[in-house]
Automatic annotation (TrEMBL):
Cofactor note: Binds 3 Mg(2+) ions per subunit.
Cofactor section: Mg(2+)
Pathway(s) where this gene product acts: Purine metabolism; AMP biosynthesis via salvage pathway; AMP from adenosine: step 1/1
Name under which the protein is recorded: Adenosine kinase
Assembly and oligomerization: Monomer.
Residue ranges annotated for the Carbohydrate kinase PfkB domain, each copy included: 2-161
Source organism: Sphenodon punctatus (Tuatara)
Location in or out of the cell: Nucleus
Cited SUPFAM superfamilies: Ribokinase-like
Record GO terms (molecular function): adenosine kinase activity; ATP binding
Active site: 122
Stated family: Belongs to the carbohydrate kinase PfkB family.
């Protein structure tokens, strides 16, 4: 679910989150933009106890500590441990699980290849989830997310080539 829903219907977001938890389904939340956690903190914190996978995009010195704290927040469904994934543009993607915090380098090292960054975060989430639904390891989910984002930022607009080459 996109964090933007917290701005217009926090009740609906909470209902989807509680239903997911009740039926042991994965509930993921993409913070979407930094203002969500700044100006919608109360509804965000109400839904956080149901979040299984939290996505965000932030660049700050203490990002690993923020990821660790977000991962450790109380959780309603103990059958699913929370995973926190923070992308940071050209900097490493950070993933926090119950057992570790890892950094993953992004695929694009040549900044001149970047055409348009619109949709890169959503593409990352889509790539990540595309592998999660097949129960692939989290490292493979991150790799797919990086691939999808790297394709998007090399093109104008949020578009993919006709035939992707992710393997």
């Amino acid at each position: 679910m996109q964090g933007f829903f917290l701005t217009v219907s926090p009740e609906a977001t909470l209902k989807v989150a509680t239903q997911s938890s009740t039926h042991n389904k994965t509930f993921s939340l993409n913070l979407s933009a930094p203002f969500i956690s700044q100006f919608y903190k109360e509804p965000l914190m109400k839904v956080m106890s149901y979040v299984d996978i939290l996505f965000g995009n932030e660049t700050t010195e203490d990002i690993k500590e923020i990821a660790r704290k977000a991962q450790a927040l109380p959780k309603m469904n103990p059958k699913r441990q929370r995973i926190v994934v923070f992308t940071q543009g050209k900097d490493d993607t950070i993933m926090a699980t119950e057992n570790e915090i890892r950094a993953f380098p992004v695929l694009i090292s040549d900044q001149s290849e970047i055409v348009d960054t619109n949709g890169a975060g959503d593409a990352f989430v889509g790539g990540f989830l595309s592998q999660l639904v097949y129960d692939r390891p989290l490292t493979e989910c991150i790799r797919a997310g990086h691939y999808a984002a790297s394709v998007i930022i090399k093109r104008s607009g949020c578009t993919f080539p006709e035939k992707p080459d992710f393997h």
